[in-house]
Structure prediction request, 309 residues.
Amino acid sequence: MIIALPDGSRKEIATESARIEDILRDLGINPVEVIVAKNGRIVPEEEMADSGDELKVVRVVHGG
Amino acid sequence: MLKDAEKSRYSRQIRLFGEEGQEKLKETAVLIAGAGGLGSIVSIYMAAAGFGRIRIVDCDKVELSNLNRQVLHWNDDVGRNKADSALETLCGINPEIEVEALVETISEDSIDRLLHGCDLIMDAMDNFPTRYLLNQAALRKGLPLFHGAISGLQGQATTVVPGNSACLRCIFPRAPPATIFPAIGATCGIIGSIQVTEAVKYVLGKGELLENRLLLWDGLSASMDEVVCERNPGCEACMNINNQS
Prediction:
């Protein structure tokens, strides 16, 4: 599974299937600060991601 | 009907969308929520483009630390209400339009009054709790909401058309932690300009809006990306809004 992180880096992790929330926790990312797109589509963190999926972690900005 | 002075003022954009398009902008009333970094860009470009009635709302005063990005306000404006400073700048840019600038806090109690007579909502806020209020009001009144947010060299934008697209709650179910965000004027310029472009397209019925798409700007890599979003059938904010498409 390939994960694009908010800092622009990409990481490959070897996992068959995992909850996105757990993946974020393993990466040390606070789910409250991000939204996650799976294969280009925003999904809830409760959703599962499989080995062939590509995740993009987007840090939500709030300033104006 | 456009006056001769208006035809001259808007001649370059009349080449783009005709006098008919310009008249549509002139007939459009907008609420700009916030006169900070995004609100500066949004209001200046909307005023210059000839949106006929602009109501801009901000409860703060201009501080020196605002001036790196809030180009509505100038050095002599430090200490003044942002709304007063905004009124002066916008009327100076385009005396052909009506500008109303209010020193008010956007709240559940004030939002309906602030939106009275407005056709669209520009989100130029600096926090999600107020954005959720704007989102809720947009859904309730069926008005489009043009979202933008920035931090440092990053920014995001999307367009919410109630009943057609994911609302802000569908995309951002929880508010991110409130922090003092880093900000540079150029990032506000990029995101605010996208918001105004979206509003112009919406009014003219041209192009593809940023509905169901969250546009992401990364100034560090000088790249734009987008992710697809869709209505969440269980969204607490919009689940009872009927699909219009």
Observations:
- The domain at 2-59 of chain A is CATH 3.10.20.30 (Ubiquitin-like (UB roll)).
- Chain A touches chain B through 17 residues (CB under 8 Å).
- The first strand of chain A starts at residue 2 and ends at 4.
